[in-house]
Every structure is written in structure tokens, then in C-alpha cells.
Amino acid sequence: MFMSRFMPCEECGDSVERSADWAHRCDPDRLVDYRMFELRQRVADFETQFHTYLISPSGQFEMWLAARDVTTRDTEG
């Protein structure tokens, strides 16, 4: 079986040569991108749940209350 010289870093997904994996340091920007990629389905699910909540009676009330609070704060100051 063919063994690749490179393996993905478990933290950031970067391709790292097996013999140099001890020297690899994850780039912070790449690390964030990789983690967001891993969480993409959870983010999409959250957006769906959030929009569903906003059209519910409780969500409608929360939006009205937030808009009222913003309006009240604007007229007080």
C-alpha cells in the first residue's frame, strides 16, 4: 500500500511532511478557518433555528422588546 509523505495536521488541516511534523506550527488564521470549516453544519443549523425562533410568538415579542429598548435609549440620551 502506498504511504504518503504528507499527512494533514489534526489541528489546522495543513499538509505536513511526516518527517517534519514535530516542527510544524499552526498558522492562527488557518487554524480559525479550519475550525470554522469543521463547524459549518452547526453554524448553518443555528441560523435555521434562530430564524425559526424569530418567527415564533416568543421571537416576535423579543424583537419588539429589543426595538422598543433601542428606541427608548435613543430618546433618553
- From N to C, what is the helix and strand string? EEHHH
Uncertain spans, ≥5 residues at pLDDT below 50?
A: none
Global morphology: elongated
Work out the strand percent: 5-15%
State the end-to-end CA separation: 72 Å
The tally of helices reads 3
Number of strands: 2
Mean pLDDT: 89
Helicity level: 55-70%
From the helix content, strand content and strand pairing, which structural class follows?
A: mainly alpha
* Main β sheet profile: 2 strands, antiparallel
Radius of gyration: 23 Å
Give the strand order, joined by hyphens, for the main sheet: 1-2
Question: What do you see in this structure?
Answer:
A two-stranded antiparallel sheet has the order 1-2. The protein is elongated and about 65 Å long. Helices cover 60% and strands 8% of the residues. The chain is mainly alpha-helical. The protein has a domain at 26-76.
Helices, strands, pairings?
Layout: E1 6-8, E2 15-17, H1 28-38, H2 40-54, H3 57-76
In short:
The chain is mostly helical. The protein has helices spanning 28-38, 40-54, 57-76, and strands spanning 6-8, 15-17.
Structural features:
two-stranded antiparallel sheet, 77 residues, mainly alpha, 3 helices, 60% helix, 8% strand
